[in-house]
Amino acid sequence: MGYSSSADLSFELPLSSDRLFFLSRGAQSAGHVRVSTAPSDSDKVTVDVLLRYHGRDDFRFAGVCLLERGKNEHGLGFFTPDRWGRWWGRHVFFDVTVRLPTKNASPLVINALSTDLSNFAIDVEELQDFVEFRTLDVRTSNAPFTARSLYADNAKITTSNGPVRGAFNTSTTLSLTTSNGGVRAQISLSNDNKHSTDLDIHTSNGPIESSISLFSKSKSSTGGNFHLTTKTSNSALILKLPVSPLNATVQLTGATSNGPGRIELPATYEGAFALATSGYMSTNLELAEGVEDPSGEKRHREVRQGLHNRGVLEGSVNWIPAGDGAESSWARVRTSNAPASIRL
Q1: Which residues, listed in sequence order, are joined to residue 100 by a DSSP beta bridge?
Q2: CA pair distance 238, 197, nearest whole angstrom
Q3: What is the rounded distance in angstroms from the CA atom of residue 284 to the CA atom of residue 96?
Q4: Would you report the helix, strand and coil content of the chain in percent, each value rounded to 5?
Q5: CB 3.0–4.6 Å: which of 86, 250, 269, 299 could bond 319 by disulfide?
Q6: What's the CA angle centered on 178, arms 336 and 342, to 5 degrees?
Q7: pLDDT tens by residue, 214-224
């Protein structure tokens, strides 16, 4: 949609806020938010807004306002009417650039950042090495979310009718949710061996294709507790775990329908596995060749195949003697009308 006019606006939000937030209200708007960094010693977040519109009346009825909530929450709101009478069908577009000030010495820590937007695409640039979010809660709709890289202790990304893509790193919880769109993500999860690190990926009518690397924060880089849940429908579910600590507890559940389900696990994984699909479809167990004991102790690897009949395959894999997390770990994949497979 072309726009004949535009206006530039600029705002500042205090870095010391308990929460930074962005919200939109009104059906006659759409937008794009880009989150980036800028070298600076400032204690302010700069927000530049390019407002695109058709004519004077569109501009007169659209608004961008600084907002405050509670004691120390600061944000920006984007407002349009739900209907504009004889201007029904006209829209404004908010092109927003959020610049986080960073120094070379250490990462910038943001207590919390949240969005409550509709029809806004969101792009996060390379932030992982420069910014740490304690809490990141992003909500939008009818638009994609893309992150080149980001780190958050707790992150929740929610959209609809658009894909979720990018590189995500967290130490506590990560939730990626959409509908009618795929999720393609490179994910790194770290765990302190005290509480579980949880991953939840949900969509529908779109594929989930994710590489999930697991790390332990312990001095020995072993152990950890990871809960991984993924679900889609009418599309493929493909999960790869290239890295996982020795002796970790890994509980992985994947579900889809009308599309293949596949998981690939590293040599460090020990525990049960289960595949399920429609009775006339195949369940496949693949074993990598030349797998050596990742502990360096030259243990023997034992793969046991238990129940294997129409649409079901169950078994377990362990090094002998087994590691600490083996008894409580599982990897389960369920689909229908399509094959299910696992590679060990």
Answers
A1: 37
A2: 20
A3: 48
A4: 5, 60, 40
A5: 299
A6: 35
A7: 999 999 999 99
* Nearest to 170, CA basis, from 132, 126, 114, 202: 132
Instruction: Quote the tokens at residue 181.
Output: 């769109």
Residue 96: which of 72, 117, 112, 110 has the closest Cα?
Answer: 117
Six token digits for residue 241: 């775990």
DSSP SS3 for 297? coil
**Could you identify the residue written with the tokens 């889809």?**
256
In 181-221, at which residue ranges do the beta strands (DSSP E only) sit? 183-191, 197-202, 208-216
CA distance 236 to 339: 10
pLDDT digits (tens, 9 = 90+) for 145-157: 999 999 999 999 9
Q: C-alpha angle 62/68/74, rounded to 5°?
A: 95
User: What's the residue count for the chain?
Assistant: 344
Strand partners, 128: none
What's the CA gap between 21 and 212, in Å, rounded? 29
Angle at the Cα of 294 (from 291 to 296), degrees rounded to 5? 110
The token pair at 146 is 């893309």
